[in-house]
Fold:
Amino acid sequence: MVKTEFHLAQFNMARARAPLTDPMLADFVDLLDEINALADRSPGFVWRLQSEAGNATDFEIGGDPQVIANMSVWESPDALFDYVYRSGHIRVLSRKKEWFERSDAPSMVLWWIPVGTVPTLEDGLARLAHLYQRSLLLTHRDGFRRFSVRSAWRGGAGHREPRATLPESLGKPPFRSPGRTAGVRRETLTMHRIACGPPPARRIAQAISMGQ
Structure:
């Protein structure tokens, strides 16, 4: 039996509507330490990109100091989902439009990495660029539209990829109840199957069972 272990890496970036020193971003800056500490102690958290200041706002991308990147590693999609939507992080997510510019291009990407691997900023940028290029190919060549997290959770994704990809339109989850109801669990599993695909270990086991 082939055994492999993988974690889920996520990278996202967005351009702030003003410099971090601007009063418009004051609440966001004030929440950084709290939200990062929340991630550090969240179940399933493995690693996050940070400078000596304890966050990732010091990493300049493309020569634009208003572009802010975030990268982290989690044990599973469910662990990341719980942190994003079932913790105090939702306070930041709900105010994203106040602090960051809207973009039509994908700004978030997920991919599987072997346990113990530490992704680099260059890895995240390359994965995001690949997602953008592929989304253009699928849209113009194959007629598939780019899909949002909500449409992926609802089973409306236009294609399936072994690598997990979630575009910029990361919004509120497609349910109302804050509890772990059976319906919510089914939505989570749908997101895992379509947006993330099965972990590599499971794909290998499936290939072996099929005689491939």
